[in-house]
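#onboarding

Welcome to the new folks! Below is a worked example of what a typical request in this channel looks like: someone posts a single protein sequence, and someone else replies with the predicted structure as tokens. Don't worry about understanding the tokens yet, we'll cover that in week two.

Example request:
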Amino acid sequence: MKLLIVGGYGTFGGRIVQLLENEPRLELIIAGRSLARAEACRKERGTTKARLVPATFDRDGDLGAQLSVLRPDIVVDASGPFQAYGEGRYRLVEACVAQRIHYLDLADGSDFVAGISAFDAAARAAGVVVLSGVSSFPVLTAAVVRRLSAGMARVESIRGGIAPSPFAGVGENVIRAIASYAGRPVRLVRDGKPAEGYPLTEQMRYTIAPPGRVPVRNTLFSLVDVPDLRALQALWPEASTIWMGAGPVPELLHRALIGLAWLVRAGLARSLAPLAPLMHWATNRLSWGEHRGGMFVAVDGADAEGRPIRRSWHLLAEGDDGPLIPSMAVEAIVRKALDGRMPSPGARAATRDVELEDYEALFAGKTIHTGFRDDTGKAKSLYPDLLGDAWKSLPGEISVMHEGTTMADGRASVERGSGMISRLAARMAGFPPGAPDIPVKVRFVADGQGESWIRTFGAHGFSSRQFAGRGRSERLLCERFGPLTFAMALVVDGNRLRLVLRRWSFLGLPLPMWLCPRSNAYETVEDGRFRFHVEISHPAAGLIVRYRGWLVPARAPTAAAPEAVTAG
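Example response:
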């Protein structure tokens, strides 16, 4: 099968090549205006199972003649920006239908994708597939909403967002597209009525948190003009609100872009298009933070009895795998076509042609993690609520400690640092004195707002308060020792439950992480018994305290006290 990738050496086209180059049944034509760049892209890929062929292709030229020479089975338009295609924006679609060539594009503009249905009759008559918007927005979002809305009698609102890694490498055409619509009105549905939104001037905060993983840091999302704003409305017309955003980082640059968009909305500037080169430079040069990104989709609805249902889906991508996700819808469709499962003929947005299980199969070999959360508001204990679906994967000895147990007994060893600073820090926190083997009791009192942990090591007692984080600490477990509060991610790692520090504060004032004590804390199971390990240190003080040991519930869990929770 011959696949012509227009813009094949660009950001998205190059990623399509990367995703499909291991398929020996494919010939990938890397095409664009510059044959030299196409050839360089082919050489950069090295030895591949697919045949890579560089070619010249000008989408403003004689398309029929160029297609007749190359004779592809499928054309993928990965160039863009689709918002700037002008009056002849569907010339490539028309040429493909005329020559009975299947067509896919990665269009990110709502108008372009909505207009593709005008070619449905011609595509059906020619027996070809014409799919627009074959990317995360709206293909992945639609697939996720289908999964989230299962069992709902109606869908009331859909929200979603993508937070790319600051090191993802954003293409120039993506920036040109954003600059073209920032601050300018776009059509959407809000509060059950057609409305206008203004991209990059409307915001929300959200924490992407796949269950059992370290969440992406709480992110500021801004409204963007993507096909979902109308394509999802066609699938779920009863939804009263549909909102899609992007959360670029660093947030400082994002806020600068928001300010510029407001100039357009206020009529003080016609467009940000002249600033696109500067925006592209800043986005790809001024990068710092964690090399990880994510995506979320949240759906609110109701069951047949009218009871509210709130569910969300979370995706976390580590390192360089995240930038591949927008191109994976094309990969999924091409691989299905190779297996004889070509989508049905016609021209449409590609919102029904890829399912979540297709994506999950492609995610499996990469550092991409997904999970679901049920936020309906059912009464849950602290740890099950924060862990979501990952709660079910915990060993029984750990889960029983965190749901239904009110008292636990065991033994522990305690080590204390010998330095003056470490001794002072341990005393302020109330940590027990050193002992090689000491009895330990842990009692927990849950009150609906959190849990008080009352520990007794021998004759020494100290306590802390645990509760679910809010705001910037959303989806994190917060533990307060006097004036200090530490926010931790609950991470399921095999048979361990690790507590990973993400934030800390003094009397509610956030403190920089480089000043934060270091922590190695986890719960595990050894020899059929619950064990805990807590080690706290600081670069300036060395070891502060290390206590570890085992616990057993003092009594079996009962249904009468589902709110009580305990841990080591």
